[in-house]
Amino acid sequence: MWLPIRIDEQRPEPLYHQIEVQLRGLILGGQLQEGTMLPSIRELAVGLKCSAITIRRVYQDLENEGLIRTRQGTGTFVAGVETSVRDEHRLERASEELERALEAGLQLHCTFDELEGLFRDLIRRKKDSKEGSS
Amino acid sequence: MTTNVTEAAISWRGVKLRNEQFTLGPLDIEIPRGMVTAIVGPNGSGKSTLFRSLLGLEPIREGEATALGVRLNGCEDESYKREVGFLPENPYGHENSLTADEKAKFASGLYPNWDWEKYRKLLRHFDVDGSVKLSKMSKGMRRKAELSIAMSHDPELLLLDEPSSGLDPFAWKTMLEELQRYMEPGDRTLVLATHILEEIRRLADYILFLYRGKVLGLYEKDRLLDDWRTLVVQLSASGPGIEKLDATPGLQGLTEAGPGLYRLEVDSPEQGEQYCRACGFQVLGIQRMELEDILSCLIRKEEARR
To answer: What keywords are annotated for this sequence in UniProt (chain B) (predicted)?
Structure first.
């Protein structure tokens, strides 16, 4: 099974962290449904060109968080996730993305007021286009 | 995978191997069980001697070596050898007149775990005709046949000396798939000597780095890749000079990349970056390093020490 996980060579985070964040995101984001069988440790390691030690660590962490389950002899599966946890993750992810956009704006020497104005404009335009099209 | 990381498949303690031309050691390392360890090093660094000692072909007169819980002393009992699979760097001339099937027949008598079904599957996957004499096969074809034979008793410990030499890219890919399958149960240990970095990237968990008969280190591959980074640093005309760069924490290599522009290879990137910024240098970029660059950096360091 192929997973849409990719290593960013520029990021400072260690490999296990990058993989863990993305796999957690796939589960909490609902792209990986409950009961989906994940690749074996060795398979994912070969696919991502990292070591089995790294993948084992990722699987152990996610198992401790209750996001995946390992059934002896059969494999590793995605566990059920409560809606509240999903929602929390959704907002967390959106907040991170907004923060990144905010940082970019500040690097371009925009003031907070300017950025807030831009953000309100964008929301208004999006709303209009959505209402217009429906 | 239920393997305990700390469990060693092979351990060397104070081992020195000597023959007329060459001394290898002292070796003080443990190869973890259930993992893939790649042995890398320039030609003549001692890889083949290391393999020979694991096969009981080199007497161990200094230090203590154990593999699969058996103490190696140059005359191992048969039960140990049954659990080991080996692919030598060069084929044995005395086997030239055998067909692959005849060699397999011979091997099946040595290994109680021999599995004809597995052997046939491997030959089919590698697209090898077992009825052809080994000497009549192309180099790559023979390699595939011999690899199949080395794996057909599903050994606990598989030792491969330059397994991919002579293989075309398709056969190489098949080999990676078969080695991945071999490792799948989680309790098998693979040690391979290789020059092919892509093989190490895809397969290895650990890298044992040999150089001129010395162990430069046994590294967890991902630790190496996580720890080593290139920093690109811009010096300003008014700021501190290059001599400050020499004191960068974790500095392993320093090259000029343009006017006032330097490329630093560091193995503690966070401290390195903080230091550079604190000195007033502009850090233009930080990037992971390629395995070959890390390895050549380690060699350069060893050369400088000599």
So the answer is: ATP-binding, Nucleotide-binding, Transport
